[in-house]
Amino acid sequence: MSRTDSATHADALLQRWCDEEAQVRQRMLGEPGLARLDQLAGLDGLAQMQAMLDGELPPPPIALTLDFLLVEVAKGKAVFQGKPQFRHYNPLGTVHGGWFATLLDSALGCAVHTTLEAGSGYTTLEFKVNLVRALTDKVPLVRAIGEVTHRGRQVATSEARLVGHDGKLYAHASTTCLIFEQRQG
Length: 185
Hints:
Blueprint: H1 3-27, H2 37-40, H3 45-53, H4 61-66, E1 68-74, E2 77-82, H5 97-113, E3 120-131, E4 142-151, E5 155-164, E6 169-181
Antiparallel strand pairs: 1-2, 2-4, 3-6, 4-5, 5-6
């Protein structure tokens, strides 16, 4: 692929990402918040994540704080999109590693969440991030793509990549999660 073709492809992908984000934002409930237990009753993890994506459940407050949102879910997969902002910078003049980590952690955990049965929960046991390229607010959007690599009865693992519309890899991460039955009441 020539440099011109590559740039055209990247521009088209960026436009698609912007369009998909606009569609998700149109469906979102007003303010970020937390779903009530009665809203989650009987829903498995994928149905919960899909309800959030469809605007039937509120997005979590962290998404507003750090400028990212859920844009895609499937069984064993979750994709979040974020916009690096100047307010996310560290003292060295690039996006803080904690922003990378939060976006990746969301994709990792929510990928596991999509595999849960109704009444189950999970918590992170271990989380590892590799930052491979600096990120600035000149990059318009990035996506954290999380996919489950193993799902057992009590333990699940997942991996995620943080990529730009031009195909550049900014970071990758992995997690191990403990799966448990949630207590009622």
